[in-house]
Amino acid sequence: MEATYLKYLLQFKRPSGTSRGVLLDKETFILTISKDGRKGVGECAVFRGLSFDDRPDYEEKLKWLCENIDQDPSFLKEELKEFPSIWFGYEQAVLNLKYGGSLYFPSEFTEGQSAITINGLIWMGEVGYMEEQIQDKLEKGFHCIKLKIGVDWKSEHVILQKLREKFSKDQLELRVDANGGFSKDEAVIVLQQLADLHIHSIEQPIKAGNWNDMAELCANTPTPIALDEELIGIIDLEEKKKLLEKIQPQYIILKPALVGGFSGSDEWISLAEDQNIDWWITSALESNIGLNAIAQYTFTKKSPMPQGLGTGALFVNNFESDLELRNELLWFKT
């Protein structure tokens, strides 16, 4: 086998706001593995400022993988355990090499017979911009909307109140993602305010790494809490188990590029289900290459909840997509 990689910079159509700042572009790396005239493509979707493997020797490790591509996969996995997004790209490329075309996980989804229900994502910004996005999602038929919060909670709270006045919890499921934007004391107040509005869940109300505080919040919360960033950088299986036992969240959210690819996600899912913790899968600003692979994987996991998958529409220079959004359903174009 031979392997090469290409660095690629995705440009946002519009600056996208999170509690960590405004994003203008997103760096990624496309890995290609070739064998006997066939090729497999995967995306090593590093997320600068968030990925556990956002480090100076990232590209050096990618070169190492290309030079050692014929090594045993278990050896490669061990060597890449601190580079989850590179392992994620490797898993994709190997699967694509096996199945060809743009297939990673052949299923009824890739045959165009079934779809995945997704939530509509609302990016942070001026109140008018957020309301404009919400209106667009509602017109497109979304029944589950996720809002980024934690920058200007007073304004964000008003938006949620207005939404709830128009739509009951049976008509519209509302999720929020704080990206660690609140202190513990703030979070206690916000969790009650969210409960009053029948919010489905809040992702990462406080910064990751504060296990004791998060455990206390999860034990007493009136609004279900989902761990997101909390999972990043936890590599060891026993440590993963320890985290879930300690915090006992209501949900965990899996971003394959950040938690060790599909095999890493499988580990988390297995541990969560052992402890009766629910989960769903989200993308993390991958290009259409990584997004396609995540969507195919997500379908095979058969979660009944709306998933947090993007649509590839954020970037001006994305690759051609195999996915198509019809209302709130993500389909594979056959």
From TrEMBL:
Q: Which PROSITE patterns match?
A: MR_MLE_2
Q: CDD domains from the entry?
A: OSBS
Provide the GO biological process annotations.
amino acid catabolic process
Task: Kindly list the GO molecular function terms attached to this UniProt entry.
Answer: metal ion binding; racemase and epimerase activity
Q: Which residues form the Mandelate racemase/muconate lactonizing enzyme C-terminal domain?
A: 127-224
Q: Which domain of life is it from?
A: Bacteria
The protein's matches in Gene3D superfamilies, at most eight in alphabetical order, are given as: Enolase-like C-terminal domain, Enolase-like, N-terminal domain
| Cytoplasm keyword on record | no
The record's InterPro entries line, in alphabetical order, gives: Enolase-like_C_sf, Enolase-like_N, Enolase_C-like, Mandel_Rmase/mucon_lact_enz_CS, Mandelate_racemase_C
Q: Which UniProt keywords apply?
A: Metal-binding
This chain belongs to the protein called O-succinylbenzoate synthase
Q: Which organism is it from?
A: Chryseobacterium viscerum
